Amino acid sequence: MTTLELDGEHAGGQFLRTALALSVLESRPIRIENIRGDRPTPGLGHQHLAVLETMAELTDADVSGADHGAETVAFDPGTSRLAGGEYAVDIGTAGSVTLLFDAVLPLATVLESPLSLTVTGGTDVAWSPPLDYTRYVKLPLLRRFGLTATIECERRGFYPDGDGRATLHLAPSEIEPLDAPSLVERPDVAGLRAYSTEAAALAEQDVAHRQAAGALNRLGLESVGTETPRTDSALAECEVVERIETTAASACPGSAIVLRLESEDGVPVAGCSALGERGVPAERVGEDAADAANQFAGSEAAVDRHLADQLLVFLALAGGRVRVPAVTDHVDSSCDLLESFGVPVVRVGEGTGETAVVAVESGDEVGEADGV
Question: From the CA atom positions of the chain, what is the Rg in Å?
Answer without folding.
Answer: 20
